[in-house]
Automatic annotation (TrEMBL):
Keywords, alphabetical: ATP-binding, Nucleotide-binding, Transport
One Pfam family, short name: ABC_tran
Protein name as it appears in the record: ABC transporter ATP-binding protein
Presence of the UniProt keyword Phosphoprotein in the record: no
Lineage: Bacteria, Bacillati, Chloroflexota, Anaerolineae, Anaerolineales
Length: 244
């Protein structure tokens, strides 16, 4: 059966992921089915080890799926070759990590140019100009020739956001984007996320942070590799955060 749900930008159908461990197969995702609408700000919560990052990896295709289907923006993610996937990812997804993952030897400007250079969407001149504009948007243009280790963690995350937006992808995937930031800096990052949603992006964010989840338009909880059923918008964040 086709996994696409009309109107959805992302559809997961009975997604299972097993990891091989010395103790045998471990099922990290036990059959996740969910549809995400364009322009949603979806937050995924759950205790440590529940399967949140594994779920994101199934959406981005950076790890193989054991069974089931993932469809993003009309494409069946796990039916592409690795090369096709890499290009597709560069054009369709902006990925933001807890640890920023900037290239330490490249300037901020060069870091933001990387996805554009990889996908050849713009001429080198246009890509430089666009990287500068994106750094201006996150208020870091004046630092654009610095290396990542010369700026703060919050500033590095803003560079990572600029980089995620480089090819103007429809979907942003963020894994604990505020996990390493103090609460004031985290709020600034979440303000930028809200702005991105207003600009038409779809955001999927994993978080342990209750105030981050409160910004979302929908919250889903994963428990032991399964989506918790019931009214997912009324999850008690207190219980999740206390046990994370
Ligand atoms: N490569 C791997 N090999 C074996 N087991 C793995 C692997 N990656 C993850 N797991 C296991 O799969 C389960 C889900 O892991 P995952 O990283 O998705 O959890 P999480 O909810 O993101 O946790 P956290 O909040 O701590 O990041 C965990 O029990 C984890 O130990």
């Amino acid at each position: 059966m086709d996994s696409t749900v009309v109107g959805s930008i992302i559809t997961l159908q009975d997604v299972k992921k097993n990891y091989q461990t010395p103790a045998g197969d471990f099922q990290a995702l036990k059959g996740i089915t969910v549809s995400i609408d364009p322009n949603e700000f979806l937050c995924i919560v759950g205790k440590s080890g529940a399967g949140k990052t594994t779920l994101l990896n199934m959406i981005t295709g950076v790890d193989s799926i054991s069974s089931g289907k993932v469809n993003v923006n009309g494409i069946s993610v796990h039916d592409m070759s690795e090369d096709e996937q890499a290009l597709w990812r560069g054009l369709n997804l902006g990925i933001i990590y807890q640890s920023f993952e900037l290239m330490p030897m490249l300037t901020l400007l060069e870091n933001v140019m990387l996805p554009m250079d990889f996908c050849h969407l713009y001429t080198p001149g246009k890509s430089r100009e666009r990287a500068r504009e994106l750094l201006r948007m996150v208020e870091l243009e004046e630092h654009m020739n610095k290396l990542p280790n010369a700026i703060s963690g919050g500033q590095q995350q803003r560079v990572a956001i600029a980089r995620a937006l480089a090819n103007d992808p429809p979907v942003i995937v963020a894994d604990e984007p505020t996990g390493r930031l103090d609460s004031t800096t985290a709020e600034t990052i979440l303000d930028i996320f809200e702005h991105m949603v207003k600009e038409g992006k779809t955001i999927i964010m994993v978080t342990h942070d209750a105030s981050a989840a409160q910004r979302a338009s929908r919250v889903l909880e994963i428990v032991d590799g399964e989506l918790k059923t019931g009214d997912s918008t009324n999850i008690s964040m207190k219980s999740i955060v206390a046990t994370a």
